[in-house]
Amino acid sequence: MDLLYSGQHQAFRQEIREFIAANLPDDMRQRLREGGFATKADTELWQRRLNARGWGAPAWPKAWGGAGWDAAEQQIFADECACAPAPPPHIFNITMLGPVLIHFGSDAQREYFLPKLLNADIQVCQGFSEPGAGSDLASLKTRAERTADGYLVNGQKIWTSQAHYSDWIFCLVRTDPGAARPQAGISFLLVDLKSPGITVRPIVSIDGRHSLNEVFFDNVRVPAEKLVGQENRGWDYAKFLLGHERAYIAGIGRSKERVAYARAVLAEMEAAGRPADALAPWRGRIAMIEADLHALEVTQLRMHGGHADMKLSPMLKARGSEIFQAITDVICRMRGAAALRADTGTLAKSYLYSRAVSVFGGSTEVQKNILSATLLDLR
């Protein structure tokens, strides 16, 4: 795929590889390669090393401490982190909240939060989904009533990743329940998770991990200066944020790393004396997935390069999810039935986690609905 990039970009890729090789702890690399997940400590350590190099926020402007890279450089960096494998820059800090504050936040919000987000001095989480308002986000019911000095928040969020160890949560809340359109009455608030009235309850997912949570707000007071942008304009800011979240949600690098791991497993099986005819089906399946992945990468580069309508980006998310699930499935099946026992290690947990990839960030069904409506508009 380097043929798709300029010589300057290929040199940039080599620079990224050398930095990761010199700075990524071996134990972290090995845990991630075996299907494990980055811990809070992993995320903090790696984010700070990236920030010290000036790479803590690939897409942020340099004026705010970002790298200021173009789309191709951002893609190369994301791919190399995934292929190492290394954790990406903190998704909630860097990919989601940071750009919203840069574009819509107040000077005081930018000056206080951006340096802390960059260096993982604080960690934030996303308070969007609610019971009955996940994919239908405009149906959210968490209320924020105006008070003399701010807002009084009541309601519930769910599926909130990392809320149990985050410091702040950025929330969509309903500030005008009488708005003509449900999207028109929503605001974007920053809420300190240490505030009185907040309860965080764990959700243990099918892979046995605690990464998700319910978050309850019971008369939580939020100062007025923690409103981002204008009241009742939160839907616009949320769409902007989700556009950043989904920019590289096809997960090209993540799937490349899993393809490389699958080939390593195949080589182990071959070295152990498995006959060629027994390995041929696996070899063929990996090759087919790799071909699909190549096609997806070319499609993504065309879109980011301006040669196709980015309104079609839901296809990247939907197809990328399918490819990641397919290669994860192949790896587990190659390892045998024991790999699918949740009590045997990280590979089974990785497989079970992969089932969620087609749900978070907008389910595949929702992406297909968006895509079909877009295609009708483009006719």
Automatic annotation (TrEMBL):
<dbReference type="InterPro" id="IPR037069">
    <property type="entry name" value="AcylCoA_DH/ox_N_sf"/>
</dbReference>
<dbReference type="InterPro" id="IPR046373">
    <property type="entry name" value="Acyl-CoA_Oxase/DH_mid-dom_sf"/>
</dbReference>
<keyword id="KW-0285">Flavoprotein</keyword>
<dbReference type="InterPro" id="IPR006091">
    <property type="entry name" value="Acyl-CoA_Oxase/DH_mid-dom"/>
</dbReference>
<dbReference type="GO" id="GO:0016627">
    <property type="term" value="F:oxidoreductase activity, acting on the CH-CH group of donors"/>
</dbReference>
<dbReference type="InterPro" id="IPR009100">
    <property type="entry name" value="AcylCoA_DH/oxidase_NM_dom_sf"/>
</dbReference>
<dbReference type="InterPro" id="IPR036250">
    <property type="entry name" value="AcylCo_DH-like_C"/>
</dbReference>
<comment type="similarity">
    <text>Belongs to the acyl-CoA dehydrogenase family.</text>
</comment>
<feature type="domain" description="Acyl-CoA dehydrogenase/oxidase C-terminal">
    <location>
        <begin position="232"/>
        <end position="375"/>
    </location>
</feature>
<dbReference type="Pfam" id="PF00441">
    <property type="entry name" value="Acyl-CoA_dh_1"/>
</dbReference>
<dbReference type="Pfam" id="PF02770">
    <property type="entry name" value="Acyl-CoA_dh_M"/>
</dbReference>
<dbReference type="InterPro" id="IPR009075">
    <property type="entry name" value="AcylCo_DH/oxidase_C"/>
</dbReference>
<dbReference type="InterPro" id="IPR013786">
    <property type="entry name" value="AcylCoA_DH/ox_N"/>
</dbReference>
<keyword id="KW-0274">FAD</keyword>
<feature type="domain" description="Acyl-CoA dehydrogenase/oxidase N-terminal">
    <location>
        <begin position="8"/>
        <end position="119"/>
    </location>
</feature>
<dbReference type="InterPro" id="IPR052161">
    <property type="entry name" value="Mycobact_Acyl-CoA_DH"/>
</dbReference>
<dbReference type="GO" id="GO:0005886">
    <property type="term" value="C:plasma membrane"/>
</dbReference>
<keyword id="KW-0614">Plasmid</keyword>
<protein>
    <submittedName>
        <fullName>Acyl-CoA dehydrogenase, C-terminal:Acyl-CoA dehydrogenase, central region</fullName>
    </submittedName>
</protein>
<feature type="domain" description="Acyl-CoA oxidase/dehydrogenase middle">
    <location>
        <begin position="125"/>
        <end position="220"/>
    </location>
</feature>
<keyword id="KW-0560">Oxidoreductase</keyword>
<dbReference type="Pfam" id="PF02771">
    <property type="entry name" value="Acyl-CoA_dh_N"/>
</dbReference>
<dbReference type="GO" id="GO:0050660">
    <property type="term" value="F:flavin adenine dinucleotide binding"/>
</dbReference>
